[in-house]
Design a protein that fits this description.
Length: about 260
């Protein structure tokens, strides 16, 4: 039986940081499977960790891509120790001004691929293993001008927390939903449009901070959500207490959108 870890979105950002962090948790991992669109970037990861790396150059926003992962799992006797789902993207734009194809692609990658990959991998999760799903601090609230992205992350958060209860009972595995605030990654390369929407970033974290916090939270038996930093935790609490119409008005005022 081969014990593996799988990282989607492994070529950059938080996904790559999670991949690198597996080096400190390599005991009991025979192979790391990495998934992203860029084959060259994925192959470059092989020299950065001890366990062998298997590359899957896939665009998970395409429905057929997940079938390649399913086939690979079916062909080998595998047991998954960690599944880290870090693929995703966002856009800073009004729904009316954005392109329908972009918004639909965002839903496909941020939501449908999470469903597909976790569904495919669930039967292979080992007892004591964990799925780590990258959501967002925006999952706790509606966010005008990032409306679709925030909605997709709300799906990830809700789905992941419920799946955690199911897998704990059926397989003795866990799901942790990681909810980062603004983080220094290539996310902004795709998110930013010609019309500057986000003008104020209240706080900015490094991917290493998000990942370090996530691993700490995973050690806590009943923790299913990971939020990094006092500012982030404060916002997550406030948006639960305040009416969301107030929360949206504050956001719009901060960004000078009204």
């Amino acid at each position: 039986m081969k014990n593996i870890a799988i990282v989607t979105g492994a070529s950059s950002g938080i996904g790559k940081e999670f991949f690198l962090s597996l080096q400190d948790r390599a005991e009991g991992i025979d192979e790391i499977w990495v998934v992203a669109r860029s084959e060259d970037k994925l192959r470059a990861l092989a020299s950065l960790t001890t366990p062998p790396v298997r590359v899957f150059a896939l665009d998970l926003s395409r429905a057929e891509s997940a079938s390649a992962l399913k086939k690979a799992l079916e062909e080998e006797e595998t047991s998954i120790k960690y599944l880290i789902c870090a693929s995703g993207f966002g856009r800073f734009q009004s729904v009316e001004a954005d392109e329908l194809s972009v918004l639909e692609n965002m839903i496909d990658l941020n939501c449908r691929s999470i469903l597909s990959v976790t569904k495919i991998c669930a039967p292979y999760m080992q007892k004591g293993g964990a799925m780590i799903l990258i959501a967002s601090i925006s999952a706790f609230q509606p966010v005008p001008y990032i409306a679709t992205y925030a909605a997709t992350k709300s799906f990830v958060l809700s789905y992941g927390r419920a799946l955690n209860r199911e897998l704990r009972k059926s397989r003795g595995a866990r799901v942790l939903c990681v909810c980062p605030f603004w983080t220094k990654t290539a996310f902004f390369d795709r998110a930013t449009t010609e019309n500057e929407v986000v003008k104020k970033y209240a706080v900015m974290y490094e991917p290493s901070q998000i990942v370090k916090r996530a691993w700490k939270d995973l050690k806590k038996k009943n923790r299913d959500v990971s939020v990094c930093g006092a500012y982030s935790k404060g916002q997550a609490l406030l948006v639960k207490l305040l009416p969301h119409k107030w929360v949206m008005s504050i956001w719009l005022k901060q960004q000078k959108l009204k």
